[in-house]
Design a protein that fits this description.
The radius of gyration is 26 Å and the shape is globular. Strand 6, helix 5 and strand 7 form a beta-alpha-beta unit. The protein is an alpha/beta fold.
Length: 494
């Protein structure tokens, strides 16, 4: 049988194309694997301030290999490495479609793993993306127990050194430096963002900081756990049952919703709401739709925030309208809150992280002395906290900063962000001197980092790109209310 010459030619072309494609794929795999070469091993080990060892480097096909959740991810070179002594990181670099930019993503809570799934949407945009475990593995705070190196790595070193190492690896892989360097994180990731702007202003041209843990040392006992503590009676039982929070929330909405011109279950600015919980105090006894005097006192203390025995205010409280978010700190049916685990008040953050001389596993929330211990937290605040309002060096470096937080946050006080922005504005010479490089957005009815009745999802990266690359400062942000969880949970930031 004679085969038509056209068919032969077509077959040859297809064969050549397949052969070329195979060679290209092999070259990309070789380029990724070459990061592990002896020459690069020396090169990365000599990175100044970030001596790095690569543990693996391999190509992951487009759409993932079953370990990733997004089908539309590009083909990537996946690199895992370690910065001495124990800082782990995961860097993903598009093999064919890199846009020339680099983004570092933050983590949440105590970190201890690679939270890469949060930043798949950025990887789809063809960024090179890195995340770090912040110097340890595991999801609790025991890693900092009598471990000064672990405290320093978690406090500020991991983020900076990972950025330095990632840039060096990106340059080695692509043979050029990133054209833009961005950071985006929420909760602990928000604190990482602010640490970078305050301490390492040359690392990133653009930073997105969501719901930062401004006071990493004091936030737990002075804000979130304060709500748990003041709701425990002398017998160790909850005073206000979590199921009654719906009663409180309804009363707040009845009193204050609509003050902004729209009755929609959302308080645009909860500070304008002056609702007094005594307005729903029971006339006599107790009932399911009113509060006892003791319950009224609990609600007031949650709003007012932590205080000393003489009534001096120590920290901000939770906002009116956020009552549905208090549930995680309140007990139900005589059972303890999830925050405490048991009525002894044990909490790993207080046991291992908050103090320089960590009291250890026997320490309880009820051992924290609100007259003596807030001052003791200062011994480690310079390691962890991100409260310096002087951003002049970041401004001089040409940086742009977007800060956002939700009004209904039950992990980090929203008013801490308000205070920081107002203080930074005064420090830097007024709003006209601040707005060219620092923008702040408050999200009504949004919980910690995401979710809530309000709109918590936004194209933060797109807004930052437009600002840094085109000079279009974000005067406003379009936010969306998501019905389903778009990414793995951001976790608690405290």
């Amino acid at each position: 049988m004679r085969i038509p010459s056209a068919f032969v030619i077509a077959s040859l072309i297809i064969g050549i194309a397949v052969s070329c494609l195979s060679r290209v794929e092999a070259a990309e795999a070789d380029a990724c694997a070459a990061l592990l070469s002896p020459r690069n091993a020396v090169r990365f080990a000599e990175i100044v301030d970030a001596p790095t060892t690569l543990l693996s480097a391999r190509v992951i096909p487009a759409g993932g290999d079953g370990s990733m959740i997004e089908a539309d991810l590009p083909e990537i070179c996946r690199v895992e490495g370690q910065i001495a002594p124990t800082i782990g990181f995961l860097l993903r670099m598009p093999t064919k479609t890199w846009n020339g930019k680099f983004l570092m993503g933050g983590c949440g809570g105590p970190c201890g793993s690679y939270t890469y799934g949060r930043y798949d949407a950025v990887l789809v945009r063809n960024y090179a993306v890195v995340v770090t475990d912040m110097g340890h593995k595991g999801s609790n705070w025991m890693f900092v127990y009598n471990n000064l190196q672990g405290m320093i790595d978690f406090g500020y070193r991991s983020t900076h050194t990972t950025a330095v190492a990632a840039k060096a690896i990106i340059e080695a892989y692509y043979s050029k430096k990133p054209s833009r360097n961005y950071f985006w994180g929420c909760s602990t990731g928000g604190r990482q963002a602010m640490v970078e702007a305050q301490r390492f202003p040359q690392d990133f041209e653009g930073i997105i900081a969501g719901a930062p843990v401004w006071n990493q040392t004091g936030n737990q006992p002075l804000f979130s756990l304060w709500a748990a503590r003041i709701n425990i009676d002398p017998e160790g039982k909850p005073i206000l049952d979590a199921r009654k929070l719906a009663v409180v929330h309804k009363a707040v909405m009845d009193a204050c919703d609509g003050a902004d011109g729209l009755k929609d279950g959302i308080l645009q600015d909860p500070r304008r709401c002056r609702w007094d919980p005594k307005s729903i105090q029971c006339k006599s006894g107790s009932a399911s739709d009113c509060l006892t005097p003791a319950e009224v006192d609990v609600v007031r203390k949650v709003y007012d925030g932590a205080s000393s025995s003489n009534g001096a205010r120590l920290y901000w409280g939770m906002m009116r309208g956020s009552e549905d978010q208090w549930r995680s700190w309140f007990g139900t049916d005589g059972k303890p809150s999830a925050a405490l685990g048991d009525f002894s008040g044990k909490n790993l953050a207080l046991s291992y992280r908050s103090f320089f001389y960590a009291p250890g596993p026997s320490y309880s929330l009820f051992d924290f002395n609100y007259d003596r211990d807030p001052a003791r937290l200062a011994l480690v605040e310079n390691i962890y906290n991100a409260q310096n309002p002087d951003l002049r060096k970041f401004k001089e470096a040409g940086g742009k900063l977007i800060l956002y937080t939700g009004w209904n946050d039950n992990n980090i006080p929203p008013e801490a962000a308000v205070d920081y922005y107002e203080t930074a504005t005064r420090t830097l010479g007024g709003e006209s001197a601040t707005l060219p490089y620092f923008r702040f957005f408050l999200l009504p009815a949004v919980n910690h980092c995401q979710y809530g009745l309000g709109g918590s999802e936004a194209d933060w990266v797109g807004s930052l790109e437009a600002w840094v690359e085109q000079g279009h400062a974000p005067d406003s942000i379009t936010v969306y209310h998501m019905r389903q969880e778009p990414y793995p949970s951001l976790g608690l930031g405290v």
